[in-house]
Amino acid sequence: MLPRLALLALVWALLVPGLSAGESRPLVAILGAFPLELAALHKEFGVDTRPNGFTTTTLHGMRFERGRVDGHEVIIFQAGSSLVNAAFQLQLALDHFPITHVLFAGIAGGIDPALQVGDIVIPDRWAYHAEAAYLNEDGHGGYIQPAFFQKSETANFGMIWPRAVRVIRDGMEKPQAMPFFPVDAELLAAARRALPKLPPLRQSGRVVGVSVGGVGVAGPVFLDNAAYREWIFRVWQARCLDMESTAYAQVCWANEKPLLVIRGLSDLAGGQRGPNPVKAGDLGEVFDHAAKVLHAVLDELPE
Asked: Is 164 contained in some domain?
């Protein structure tokens, strides 16, 4: 009897026209959202220094680099900044390649006051913070609720009333509200095994913290507002905030693919004093550290 992954590869080769036997091997997807994140992953996995070790496929303008790393067949690509790009581009990859696991490494804004710039967080679940209704004030300190609107149990931020997105996948008869999308338990366990083996990671001379667990949130905004940041932490106890990860989590949930998201903190999402000091060109260590943690997690997975 064929092993499970070999059977998956055979089925995929039959279903997807034009795939050769080598292209049909199961792949671990390694993602970044924008060019600097992708560059850190290319550097970590030697995509540009081992040109003969990777082959390139282009779909709808997206480049996919396939190769073998430490006994793993991987496909490395940029899966888009913003929720819409993230969902579309990851689904495109899942539709065209035999991807078995999805690993992401990139940057985010820190929400948890206990965290500092440079720290790395690996949340165990993801939520949307801006899936919401925007309501009119009623003139008496409240807000006018439309007749069809079911009041959210989540505390509002002024006119913004969060609502859980409604989702459906195979096996469900109707959509259901999904406040959180879970991260794969086996990948979280792999991350916990990997962390003690990592050498100390330093950001501006400080050894940064690397932790697993807690909530991450995503939305279609770059957050640089202290009051909104405090509300996010109060409502979700979120550790970090970005513009893609919950979309990745939803797509992986719908496709029943294991996901792990690793985020290095580039800034404090408005929690700093004065102007936000974040400059992408100054964040090389943060990008590199997130990629190194992803590599360590990959090493913990069965070949």
From this structure: no
Query: What's the pLDDT at 280?
Result: 59
Among 141-150, 195-204, 230-239, name the one with the lowest average pLDDT: 141-150
Predicted pLDDT of residue 52: 64
Give the number of domains in the chain. 1
Closest C-alpha among 106, 66, 65, 69 to residue 86: 106
Residue 180 CB: number of other CB atoms within 10 A? 18
pLDDT score, position 278: 77
Looking at 22-87, which runs of residues are DSSP E strands?
Answer: 27-32, 54-59, 62-69, 72-78
Asked if residues 242 and 173 have their Cβ atoms less than 8 Å apart, the reply is no
Domain that holds residue 242: 22-129+177-299
Instruction: Tell me if 211 is assigned to some domain.
Output: yes
Question: b/e for 102-126, b at 16 or more Cβ within 10 A?
Answer: bbbbbbbbbbbeebebbbbbbbbbb
More confident residue, 46 or 2: 46
CATH number at residue 286: 3.40.50.1580
